[in-house]
UniProtKB/TrEMBL annotation:
Compartment annotation: Cytoplasm
Membership in a protein family: Belongs to the RecX family.
Entry function: Modulates RecA activity.
Gene: recX
Protein name, UniProt field: Regulatory protein RecX
Domain of life according to the entry: Bacteria
Amino acid sequence: MKKLTPLQAREKILRYCVYQERCHSEVRDKLYSFGLFKTDVEELITYLITEGFLNEERFAKAFAGGKFRMKKWGRLKIVHELEQKHISKNCIKSALKEIDERDYTQTLEKLVKDKSNSLDEPNLFVRRDKLSKYVIQKGYEPDLVWSLIKELFPH
């Protein structure tokens, strides 16, 4: 990509931020990809925050809610992904509050039941192990997963 002037970059980054919620690190990386210097990048980020185009907490809430609803991710995976994007602990905590506890439990139960129906495994212990691995890799808390699996599939 050719080097953009700060004014050209500002127009482009405004469209980028309006299209969907972004975190600071995504915007910063994008601005550097335009060939801008550190001072221009920081100035533009300050402008975006001041004008309300960039908000980490709003991003974190949108990200957490979206990944939970659309991809059925658990809290652990959401937290990990937000940490990878350098989102603050407070914003992450605030984002997790967007996930309703009842919806979370119902989603976990549905994932376990759907996966169980797709398994052709007669051995109860192997079946429970496969189910737990599946939902734990989706980011659900192991203790929560195991208590549900033991409840749904007792000895």
